[in-house]
Amino acid sequence: MLINLALILFVAAVVALIVAAWKIADSLIKSPREIRPEDWVTFGFHPEFVRFAATDKVQLSGAFIKGNRPETILLLHGYSHSKTQLLPQAKLLHAQGYNLFLFDFRGSGESGGDYITFGEEEQRDLVGAVDYLRSRKDIDTDRLGIFGFSMGGSVALLKGGELPGVRAIIVDSSYAEFTSLIKMSFKEYLGKFPFFPLGNLVLYLIKVRTGAYFANIKPFQNVHKLGSIPLLVIHGTADRTVPFWDALRVQGSATGPAELMVVQGAGHNDTFATGGDRYAKKVVGFFQTHLGE
Predict the structure, then answer these.
(1) By C-alpha distance, which of 79, 81, 86 is closest to 65?
(2) Distance between CA atoms of 283 and 23, rounded to whole angstroms?
(3) What is the tens place of the pLDDT at every residue in 25-68?
């Protein structure tokens, strides 16, 4: 009788663990889509909305903003956000005359795709975006810049060194590797519960459902592929989502020119606001220096 009861309790515990892991995994890879068309009006933009394909044919939603210079800057949003997230930075750069291209990663905003993969499959989206820009005849595709925030910056680090025409990259609040980041996040999310077995089960379910293998998402290991492409790493000292240590790790992995801009007291989402004029001048000056003739 006791053996049967113990078996029932064990099975119930396993089922509860699987259900909990499934729900957590689902919330991570299927974040509510952020769609904010009113933001274009708020920032005074009237973009050319386009559809283009990632390299695996996933259909993506983009917005091209014409400037009065030949250079173009791609802006890559962060996890659970969309192309309108970086409109403050877009406003800053457009005032300097740059063409801008913003797009929604797969599983986000108005793009296709069912899942967010934290940088692994999103690399296909970035390649597709560059391919789209190179199909246009009204820009100089040999002078491209990338500004990526958080996950978007990590995608730029993972793939930027392999993209034709990219001359400068800025990453803001981006992670060095995803496994350590998610373990740290789980520690805060799960409280006193150990990462094993729930955390491991969540990662396994995400891998099964999306194909994303977190051990592969190590942007700091790809930084050397940037070669001579100048890199600017921006990070806040009070970032509780991606620790400041990650910025040091990314910059320290570069073999080419790499600068670090420290924003004292800034958290994960307020480097732009906290950095103020210093942030604006650094970003503008970096692109002016490295995207010009």
Answers:
(1) 86
(2) 39
(3) 887 888 888 999 999 999 999 999 999 999 999 999 999 999 99
DSSP 100-138: EEEEPPTTSTT---S---TTSTHHHHHHHHHHHHHT-SS
Residues 62 and 193 in one domain: no
Whether 113 and 97 map to the same domain: the answer is yes
- Is 139 in the same domain as 60? yes
Phi and psi torsions of 150, nearest 5°: 50, -115
User: In terms of domains, do 139 and 55 share one?
Assistant: yes
Residues 46 and 118 in one domain: yes
Task: Supply the range of the domain harboring residue 85.
Answer: 38-177+217-291
Q: How many CA atoms lie within 13 A of 95 on its CB side?
A: 13
Give the pair of three-digit tokens for residue 229: 């492409």
Are 76 and 146 in contact by the 8 Å Cβ rule? The answer is yes
For the entire predicted model, the pTM comes to 0.92
CA proximity to 232, closest of 261, 203, 254, 204: 261
Number of domains the chain is built from: 2
Task: Tell me the two tokens of residue 145.
Answer: 């810049």
Do 153 and 170 belong to one domain?
yes
Q: Do you know the residue count of the chain?
A: 293
**202 shares a domain with 224:** no
- Regarding beta strands 48-53 and 59-65, do their DSSP bridges make them parallel or antiparallel, or are they unpaired? antiparallel
